[in-house]
Amino acid sequence: MSKLPKFVSPKQLLKLLKAEKNTNSALTLFDSATQHLTYTCHTPDVFQHILRRLTDSKLVSQVPRILTLIQKQKCKCSEDVALSVLKVYSDNRMPDKALEVFQQMNEIFGCDPGIRSCNSLLNAFVMSNQYDRAESFFAYFETRFETNLETYNVMLKILCKRGKFDKAKELLDWMWSEGFKPDVISYGTLISSYVKSGDFGNALEVFDEMPERGVSPDVVCYNSLIDGLFKLGNFTKAMEIWDRLCGDSCVFPSVITYNVMLNGLCKCGEFDESFKIWQRMLMNEHRPDSYTFCTLIHGLCKSGNVDGAYRVYTGMIKSGYVPNVVTSNAMLTGFCKAGRIGVCLGLWDSMGKVGCRNIVSHNILMKGLFEKRKVDEAISIWELLPKDGCVPDSCTYGIVIHGLCENGYLSKAIRVLSEAEDGGGNLDIFAYSSLVKGLCGEGRLDEAICIFEQMKKGGCKPNSIMYNELINGFIKFSKLLDAMRLFEEMKANGCPPTTATYNTLINGVCRAEKFVEASAILKEMLRNGREPDLVTYSSLIDGVCKAKKIDMALQLFVRMLKESKPDIYLYNILIHGLCSVGRIEEALKIHLAMKSCNCPPNLVTHNTIMDGLYKARDCKKASEIWSQILEEGLKPDIISYNIVINGLCLSNQLDAAVGFLDHALVQGVFPTVITWNILVKAVLNSASPSM
């Protein structure tokens, strides 16, 4: 901070104040001069300078004592000094204080309010959303002062903030007719308000009117339109406005424009375009700010271009900006998603050196490590939390417990859950459902139910995902009654079953050949507005096919065709069902139709048809299917060879069967026990008549 010389004049003080960049230091300097023995009195210029610098909310409390000093020194000031005070109070949403100063202007400053003071107070009411008071005040001074363009610009703002856009447009037209000549602020207010309300038709109409009226749009008008269009997801129109801006010889994109463009393009998924804008920005020698860097890094990471993001990240550091933890976390996420764990760990270390890690950083890295099955490394990051001063949140516990379960460390996951519960940790449904899923997957159903009950006691309400995991576990291990009990409990607890819930139950009852129950569940599903999907139909058709109820399966298939398109899995189920009861011709028709339905048969389909044909003793057609497999570039597996070898053996073509065995070996497909059983049985059968 500058020191006052032994003798200082108001002119010298003003020069010192202007040179002092820190407002608190400037205020101290001002106070020192006030108490300086050789200093006379502050001039209006000094008062105006110091008052203008008190706009910060932490400094606005200093204004009253400065006003008291003005009165005490009987410093006659112009309206400009009063306007500085009104602006400070307006910016800080303090209209009552502004009104108080307005009413005492003569007493404090020795000057009367003019139209500029009226406009400033009017704006103070608007800034605080006190529109009724603003309109009342306007009615008061409209007849006492000569209103000007600034007055009506504030009135435009009031109408726009109240959503009275038609009235605002009428006022704009009236201003032209009365000779007030609306300026870029008038038009900018209306355009910005139209954009915020989503009325881009009128916003663009007003924007197009500007050059017709001789008003040049400024960069703020362009920014407002581009930003609004991007937020609406209208990439094409936003780019049109951008092109107009680039073609406007009177206006040039600002750093804010580039930030709006980069943010909008990234949110629209136009990452290549965003990189072009970035390059244009650098070429035009615009210095990116921290927001520019962060926006682009986030966007490039999201697009998977982590190398590009890292180049921007290092460029940010070279430009003198320190990446904040949010930006570093975005970079960390990008590398984790790309599976580049080594680079992640390097970035992690550099973040630690500058103290730029938070709980989100730990969560990101642990998730990435668990996904790459690096459990020990993930646990080491987990153990770092206390050292880094981070408290685990619900997301942390979810990631750790889920990661341990997915990697087969169920006992460790149970310990983490228990420690969290004992320590009052913040646990959510994801942590519990991950553990329940893991336990159900290993058939540890009693433990899963224990965790489930534990969760409920802890005040965590089960959701459909949790119930679905439990129901699926019981179905998987053929505990249908327990699954149905949970299903009823789910409904009783106000947790509506999802399509996945119904699909799991339908699959379970179909496997148990309880088709009446399956039909009842399907009807309930439809009653509750849940539409059957491919999984529903696949479970139903698979169940009835296994029960040899092929006509019912075909009826379900025809019904499904009206609602959705079958996938390869469903086609294979139906073809297998038809072949299993000898209805090979119908299976062949479906097999033939698959290509035209844009669902070409796969190896499983061909194997199933081939097996059905051999069992029907139609070796010729079966051979054609084999040729089709090869023509389509599919590689026969041991199942394919076993089907052919078995079919040929059934047709007493043992030599041909052995020839296929040799072919399999040449192709690197090795026989299984089933292969040898087929051949041994065929040899024994061929030898039995002569024995």
TrEMBL record:
Q: Does the keyword Repeat apply?
A: yes
| Magnesium is among the record's keywords | no
Q: Which PROSITE patterns match?
A: PPR (PS51375)
Q: Which UniProt keywords apply?
A: Repeat
Q: Where are the PPR repeats?
A: 148-182, 183-217, 218-252, 254-288, 289-323, 358-392, 393-427, 428-462, 463-497, 498-532, 533-563, 567-601, 602-636, 637-671
Which domain of life does the protein's organism represent? Eukaryota
Q: Give the protein family.
A: Belongs to the PPR family. P subfamily.
| NCBIfam families membership | PPR (TIGR00756)
Task: Supply the name of the protein.
Answer: Pentatricopeptide repeat-containing protein
The taxonomic lineage of its organism, from the top, reads:
Eukaryota, Viridiplantae, Streptophyta, Embryophyta, Tracheophyta
